Known about the structure:
alpha/beta; Glyoxylase-like metal-dependent hydrolase (Beta-lactamase superfamily II); 14 strands; metal-binding; six-stranded mixed β-sheet; hydrolase; RibonucZ/Hydroxyglut_hydro
Amino acid sequence: MTLKIETFSLGPLQTNCYLVIEETxxxxxxxxxxxxxxxxxxxxxxxxxxxxAIVLTHAHFDHMGGVDEARKALKCPVYLxxxxxxxxxxxxxxxxTRWPDVTGPLTTEPAEYALADGQKLTLIGHEFDVLxxxxxxxxxVSLVSGEHLISGDVLFRQSVGRTDLPGGRERDLYxxxxxxxxxxxxxxxxxxxxxxxxxxxxxxxxxPYVPA
Length: 212
């Protein structure tokens, strides 16, 4: 069984939002609906998809900025790690008060469901392993299904997530990458929170920040 994953670069920080679709093309779920999700919502409407969930890899404003609009339009629940449970309702914690030249304060209702390390999340007829991968933020998670990894802002192509924001910790980030992401099959395709796709094997061989 295969998944189709479409990418939408949303908002002023060009955040990668992912639309994950099951093989029959009837159901899907959304990962990280960033600011200004109209193109995403239009695409979902065009495809006639039933959306089962919105999953947040973490709750920084550029990843959760479109949650309010998307949740109302799609009528589906939101999943988020408990360590960032209150970030959706607190503009200071999600960082939207930090860059007034980028956005005004952003808030939305709390997530309906919590994510936890080791959880098996069943969506659109597929099972996704939830990996708690802190470092960029305390509640960052990555989703794995087969040879697909949605990594949020933990691992990028030849780069890593910043750790200088509140709740970030460099040592945790490298532990997450080496101890969890680099343990995956080298052929695993990485869908990051910003920038182009990559693979675990390529990053192990070429990422200058995290030598294997």
